[in-house]
Each structure stands twice: as C-alpha cells, then as structure tokens.
Amino acid sequence: MILRLAAGLGAVTVLRALSPDQAQPPGGPPSSGGPPRAAGPQAGAPVRVSSYRLQPMTAHAPPRFRPARSPVRKRPFLRLAGLGGSMVLTFDDGPDPRYTPDILSTLRHYDVRAMFFVCGEMAVGHRDLLREMAGDGHVVGNHTWSHPLIPRLSRDAIRDELGRTSEVVERAVGYAPAWYRAPYGAWSRSSFEIGAELGMEPLGWSLDTLDWREPGTGTIVRRVRQGAGPGVVVLSHDAGGYRAQSVAALRRYLPWLLDAGYRIAVPNPMPRM
User: Fold this and answer.
1) Nearest 5 degrees, angle CA 11-CA 16-CA 22?
2) Could you tell me the strand order of the sheet in which 179-180 lies?
C-alpha cells in the first residue's frame, strides 16, 4: 500500500509538470476581446524612459516567457533576400489621416501587406490607424518619436525617442514593434545597441522613391518599376508633407508589380544577416 501510494503521488507530480501553461507570452496573439492594454506610464506623459520601456511587460514574468534580446547589428538590413524573391513596400513618417487611409485602402484592394514606420508624435493621436494597420496584417515599425537626426542625440535621448514610440504602438495594437528605422537613414552605434535592447531589428532600404521631393506621380512610378527586383525594399512616405503623389503612384505601380510577377511580402521579426 505504501509503495502504491508513493507511485500515485509521483504520477500526479509528473502530470502537473507536463501540463501546458495557459499563460500567453508577451508579444503573442491578442485575445478575441481586443488588444490588451499594456501596464505602465501614459504614452503622452513627459517622463524619462525607464526600464519599463526597455523591457515592457517582462519584469514579473517567468524567465521562459521573456523575449530574447535582439542581436546588436553593425549596419541595417538594406535588402531582405529571405522572402523567396519578394519585394517589400515601406511607408515612413505616419500615420497621417489625410493619406494613410488611402494607402491602406489600396493595399487592402490588392490583398498586399506592407511595413509602416510610424513616428510617435503622429501615432499618439491616431491610434485607430495603428490598429487598422495591424488588423490588416501590416508590420508597424518604429521611426522614433519626433524624426530627429539620431547621430546628434545622446544615448538617453535615443532611448526616449525609440522607447516612447514603442510604448504607443504597444498600447494601440497589443505588442511592441519588432523593426525600427532611423530618420534620414542616419544610424549610430548607440541606436543599434538601444534598438536591440528594445527587441528591434534595423531596416533601411534599397530603392528610394524620393517621393518626399514631390517629383510627380509618373516619376515615382518609373523609379519603382526600374528598381524592382527580388529582395528590394522600397521607401515611400505616407506623412511628413504633401503625399498625394505617393498615394497616386502606389495605385499605379502596385498592380504593375503584381502583373509583372512580383510578390509583395513583409518579413518575420527575426531575420538573418
């Protein structure tokens, strides 16, 4: 009897050890009731970045649920060759209610996913557009808070620019950005290190439409057509100025790319150099 009792207690212990944990790790899919609200300070509050922003929602989580720190890169990704020959469309500086909804509508019409690198000062007042981006399957990336020249900033200032923006995105869509882009493509060693602390990968571009110069819709379309190719990352803008040409150009070059056999895709969170 004693031996049977001991065996029974051992079996119960083993079953408990093998039973799945019902907790959802940070960054996992949101519940059906809508994206969870992250704990911490208000996104718009004028406070300095703290360890909360460096490791959101992990301070009291079991170690196995803490996200791995991203590797510290020495340069950004300029092309994404691991997408099976697909191209990547990216839009910077938004969201802007004058132009972003039209871009989202065009992408939705052609069932295409893109990447939006948002600025915190724009995103904080248009969280509905962030949720629309995420709901359509687009990647919401970090483009700093106020679009500064990164190499001129201190480490604390860089951490504040990236941390505050990640916090706004997380509060809106339920998870923090996995990608970030330096304004003007101006990176620094500190930005790579702090981006890695925040769990983000750096992405540049290989095809610049120069749409911010407002060269005309036809010129933007021609640049995309001439520069199209496997792994190409296209840079456009959905905010930061007059972007009607960018919207009109997308409506023309996107169906052309698809008819030409190009696939448009978005990357996974963790690429390889």
Assistant:
1) 160
2) 201-202, 179-180, 139-142, 115-118, 88-92, 233-237, 207-208
> Six-digit token pair at 63?
């170690």
φ, ψ at 226 (rounded to 5°): -70, -30
Token match 């909804």: residue?
101
Can you tell me the distance from the alpha carbon of 168 to that of 145, in angstroms, rounded to the nearest whole number? 10
Q: Is the pLDDT confidence value at 250 over 90?
A: yes
Sign of the C-alpha dihedral computed for residues 154, 69, 139 and 257 taken in this order: positive
Task: Specify the 3-state DSSP secondary structure of 44.
Answer: coil
Give the tens place of pLDDT for each residue, 186-229: 999 999 999 999 999 999 999 999 999 999 999 999 999 999 99
Please give the positions annotated as active site: 92, 237
Residue showing tokens 């703290």: 50
Count other Cβ atoms within 10 Å, centred on residue 256: 13
**Under 8 Å between Cβ of 207 and 80:** no
**Cα–Cα distance for residue pair 20/190, rounded to 1 Å:** 40
Q: For the residues 249-268, what does the mean pLDDT come to? A: 94
Closest-CA residue to 73 (of 182, 164, 215, 226): 182
CA distance 264 to 111: 10
131-151 pLDDT tens trace: 999 999 999 999 999 999 999
